[in-house]
Amino acid sequence: MSSSRECATGEESRTVAVAVSRGLPVIDLALDGEPSSDRDRAETARAVGDACTEIGFLVVTGHGVPSRVINELRRQTGDFFRRSDEFKQSVAVERGDPLMRGFGRGRTELLESFTVNRLGAPDAAERVSSDVDEQLLLPNKWPDIAGFRQAYTEYCAAMEGLAGEIMRLFAVSLGLPGGWFDAAFGSHMSSLTANYYPRQGAAPEPGRMRKEAHRDWGTLTVLYQDETSRGLQVYGRDGQWADVPAVPGTFVINIGDLMARWTNDRWVSTVHRVVNPPADLAHSARYSFAYFYQPSPGAVVSCIPTCTGADEAPKFRPTRADAYFAAKRRREYIKESLVARRVAG
Less packed terminus of the chain by CB within 10 Å, N or C? Predict the structure, then answer.
């Protein structure tokens, strides 16, 4: 199914929502050309807001991220994951790191990952309040690969710019000034996770998949996935799983639980997963890059003024971002511990 929405600006117009692919809107952000008019920008914001209200997922084109930056990240990441396990373990996640910086594995052998966080930069302590947990400021772990750190740094910078633009569209769509969210992200604790799904020589055990069904915890996720990859699915309101196609030259955007909370649940954080490939594609590895744009540790998240009213009270108490994520991690740890006990007998 496809559709489009034209935004008229005198004699000129552009297509804001260029298509709908399997239920997900594909929206042109127009960040790679001439600046958009106020009217175009307002229409883009409405299209983005509609997507966040209906499903919490969308696909964006016209994002302005150079292909060179993406390709170099992909090349360096492939080099890292092809290295020996001993090499990868040299930058393994430390047990006490709440931000999971470094190399790690999923709950099964079907996923490996590598994560860096903005709070792992050498000057991070200078940019956050003094009451921030020092564990959040542990340094990033960088493998000894020429050009690797630079590739990740450049990609994170590009993602920071793109995520900031999307947050400004979020603000406009919610009836707020474009820079309304800026203060909450002044010292943001965003992370970039490279996901590597190895080739599958044999069919996985029943019930095991590349990444289990989950919702993202935070504000905004910007996902790049290989153009040839398959497996990402979202759980729709109709109770059905829908494939998210890898559209060349685009990013998949989704909101998380914190953004839904910020909007008083007017916007939805949607369950998604990565399923195993069909037999004819099991020989192919899959790569994806998830940039999680998260507020500053000390930012207080409370109901957005335009998302409440006389007949609609805030559903959630205000919370500091670092306390929110700490609570999420504690609940996840308890859940994993219970699962491990059941498996052990």
Answer: C
Nearest to 91 by CA among 118, 69, 119, 112: 112
Say how far apart CA 297 and CA 294 lie, in whole Å: 9
CA distance 53 to 42: 16
pLDDT of residue 2: 40
User: How far is the C-alpha of 168 from the C-alpha of 340, rounded, in Å?
Assistant: 42
Largest CA distance in the chain: 70
Note whether 189 and 321 are within 8 A (CB).
yes
183 phi and psi angles, rounded to 5 deg? -60, -30
Q: What is the residue-wise DSSP string for 182-196?
A: GGGGTT---EEEEEE
Digit-coded pLDDT (tens) for 153-206: 999 999 999 999 999 999 999 999 999 999 999 999 999 999 999 988 777 888
Q: How far is C-alpha 147 from the chain's CA centre?
A: 24
Which pLDDT tens digit goes with each residue over 100-147? 999 999 777 789 999 999 999 999 999 998 999 999 999 999 999 999
Contact 219, 259 (CB under 8 A): yes
What CA–CA distances, in Å, run from 38 to 161, 164, 235? 19, 17, 34
Q: What is the pLDDT of residue 207?
A: 77
Residue 339 has pLDDT above 70, yes or no: no
Give the residue among 27, 37, 56, 17 at the shortest CA–CA distance from 221: 56
pLDDT of residue 345: 55
At 83, which amino acid appears? R
> How far is the CA of 209 from the CAs of 101, 110, 265, 275, in angstroms?
23, 7, 29, 5
Mean of per-residue pLDDT scores for the chain: 89
